[in-house]
């Protein structure tokens, strides 16, 4: 049998600073009620000066490594998924590697984007590397610092109320039996409408990359056509779940123990559950506490579900995401 992969341990870390909807309402025209009704979000975590993506990622990674029962020195590869790198270049993966104190080992670091679908893309890469026999232990991180790039004024309220900061990590290793293994990953993208959720500048295609006019116009802040994104999300996420079910011969939704969806909007996830006939108790959401942490939502949500006993060893788990790009995908695994 060729190697198969499994998730050996999961960790998470969020900043300690809690930002409530009321805190945001003091800075822009919004209300706690509007945010809860449209998104489900009650509060999120935002970094304080000195906290970094690599720093949060290191904390999440140390927990994942410990849960996996290995040492940082055992890692063969680091995959770092983020749309908000700590600096323009080099990628944040090497900064995480340095924080973990394993720079001297020459462990390769692979930085990937794919926004909200970053963790699923990363899982598909990790799974392929393990199957190929190239690597035995891969650290996969989704980490995001959104708050330092948001327009905290009424102009940016549609996006700013949604995003939070945080990091989640998983160690992917070689499966030793069929009861604990990654069964499938399916990843997709369609760039036709890349601009419906994007940050336009700084951009290497511009001369200069960021001008005073760009700053004045707020082009360095993320922009979103929310309703369009919402419609695509509630179409693509059920498709990705069905694709994974078919590939694995899973005949009934009842066979799935837990769905961990990307946390973009509670209403999106509730609609997805309804569309596929999934009872609410079989989907874990924690957007209420953390907002949308982009590439970090799935490992953070999965970590919480494991801690709460909602995901148990051997359970059939579905991870599913949709995000900017547009990108989407799913993963099925026996935990
Ligand atoms: O993770 C990546 C994927 N992202 C997503 O999946 C996000 C998908 N989209 C959404 O979650 C929703 O579109 C939002 C939550 C962003 C917005 O909800 P919506 O129901 O689509 O509202 P809308 O953008 O159509 O805006 C409705 C009204 C507008 O006012 P008018 O034009 O009707 O007077 C907005 O200006 O709500 C206004 N509005 C707000 N009001 C209070 C927009 N943002 C806010 C706000 N507080 N924060």
Protein architecture, described:
By secondary structure, the protein is of the alpha/beta class. It has two domains: 5-178, Thiolase/Chalcone synthase (Peroxisomal Thiolase, Chain A, domain 1, 3-Layer(aba) Sandwich), CATH 3.40.47.10; 182-334, Thiolase/Chalcone synthase (Peroxisomal Thiolase, Chain A, domain 1, 3-Layer(aba) Sandwich), CATH 3.40.47.10. The chain is 33% helix and 22% strand. It has helices spanning 21-25, 32-39, 53-68, 92-99, 118-132, 157-160, 212-217, 226-248, 266-276, 287-290, 297-307; strands spanning 5-13, 18-20, 43-45, 77-81, 109-112, 138-144, 166-174, 181-189, 197-198, 223-224, 258-261, 316-323, 327-334. The strands form four sheets. A five-stranded mixed sheet has the order 1-7-6-4-5, with helices on both faces. It has a four-stranded mixed sheet with strand order 8-13-12-11, sandwiched between helices. A two-stranded antiparallel ribbon has the order 2-3. A hairpin with a 3-residue loop joins strand 12 (316-323) and strand 13. The longest helix is centred in the C-terminal third of the chain and has 23 residues, at 226-248. Bound molecules: oxa(dethia)-CoA (UT7).
